[in-house]
Amino acid sequence: MNPQHAWLAALLLCCPLAAQEGEAAKPTGADARLEALQKEQKSIYDSWLKERREAAKKMKAGGKQARAISMRPDYSGLRGKFLAAADEFQGDAPRFLVPALNLSNGADDYRMLITRIVDNHLDSPEVGSLGRMLGYLDRMVDEEFKAAVVKKVKAHGKNAGLMGWITFQEHEPTFRSKSPKSDEFVAAKAIVSKAVKAADQEMLTRQYEQLMTEQEKFGIGMAAPDISGIDLDGVSFKLSDYKGKVVFLDFWGDW
Amino acid sequence: MYPHERSLVNELKDEPFALIGVNSDRTIERAKKAIEENDLNWRSFQNAPKDSERKISDDWAVRGWPTIVVLDPEMKIRYRGHNGEEATDVVRELLAHDKK
Question: Chain B partners of A221 at a C-beta cutoff of 8 Å?
């Protein structure tokens, strides 16, 4: 074998090795698995929906309900499959952990998965979509856990998605309690609008813009629009009939 | 909520105060039944009277129930939220301020 051939042979030998190494990260494998699991989730949902509809139809026709139909699809098995995939495709773990979290039920599951995500995967933009959940973590788990998670995310500081949600949630009380014309409101808006933009999360952007529109029209100190309507006996009256009084306007219903 | 609001109306009946409802029940009968059964003592707009094109709650960007808005005597908004007790605190502050 002349030297040139030796070099070629080495290259050829290397290539399958390189290919194998590329396969260890399995980008296509993870994509395919994710797709399959999403498909499975859809089919579980579709058959649950079908079952519910058929049961409702039977009930309407006067028949008896054969057995109880659960209020939500049973994803318990599928959740395990997402978790197994997270272990198998470690480099892509967040892509499986986020849906596994969305399929979870109960404080212990939330605690376990969220801890795993914030301890290992804050560099992944995939986990930014969990930010919405952070606002409810005190109710999903408890106040202490929420504080600990927020602290970790802030110490890391580089997950723009999660930071955007946290910044929004922290300033929300200011938006709701201060006049849109006040310095505090304006200062908070400058901070939050920047964080929301950097986060680039569709749902966060929508929530933020909705709140701004609402507050700039109905925030503290803004003039209330008048209401002209009829009472429950059909008699016309206006909100401005009560001008000069303090009014407790109560949007209520007995449903 | 009902007992809280009912007692507020009774307590403040001699003050410059009014509790006004915007009722979103599907039928007037349903609302009237609630009023009778719970002895409710305030006047309510119908949120979406028959043949009306718009709902009051839409005009006021209300997305959760109950929503409470407290207005001062100049009809400026002093509270907007979902917490009846917080709203009541704001009412009391405004009435106390008025007396000064």
Answer: 76-78
For A104-142, the pLDDT digits (tens) are 989 999 999 999 999 999 999 999 989 999 999 999 999
For the beta carbon of residue B41, count every other beta carbon within 10 angstroms. Answer: 14
Domains of chain B: 2-99 (3.40.30.10)
Q: Which letter, b or e, does each residue of A59-84 get, where b requires 16 or more Cβ atoms within 10 Å of its Cβ?
A: eeeeeeeeeeeeeebebeebbebbbe
Under DSSP, the state recorded for B78 is E
How many Å apart are CA B5 and CA B3, to the nearest integer? 6
- State percent of chain A over pLDDT 70: 87
What is the token pair recorded at A170? 């922290």
Residues in chain B with CB shorter than 8 Å from the CB of A254 are 25, 30-31, 33-34
The residue assigned the tokens 């303090």 is A246
The answer to whether A162 and A131 have CB atoms below 8 angstroms apart is: yes
Candidates B26, B56, B80; nearest CB to A218: B80
Q: What is the pLDDT of residue B100?
A: 64
Site of tokens 């969305």: A102
Tokens of B48: 């979406």
pLDDT of residue A7: 47
Type of residue found at B66: P
Q: What confidence score (pLDDT) does residue A15 get?
A: 45
Q: Please identify among residues 216-245 of chain A the ones whose CB lies closer than 8 Å to any CB of chain B.
A: 217-227, 229-232, 237, 239-240, 242-245
Q: Would you tell me which residues 22-61 of chain B have a C-beta closer than 8 angstroms to some C-beta of chain A?
A: 22-26, 28, 30-35, 42-47, 49, 56-57, 59-61
pLDDT digits (tens, 9 = 90+) for B48-87: 988 888 899 999 999 889 999 999 999 999 999 999 999 9
Q: Please give the structure tokens belonging to residue A201.
A: 């999360």
Assigned token pair, B88: 């009541």
Which residue from B minimizes the CA distance to A212?
A: B61
DSSP code, position A127: G
Q: How far apart are CA B38 and CA B32, in angstroms?
A: 10
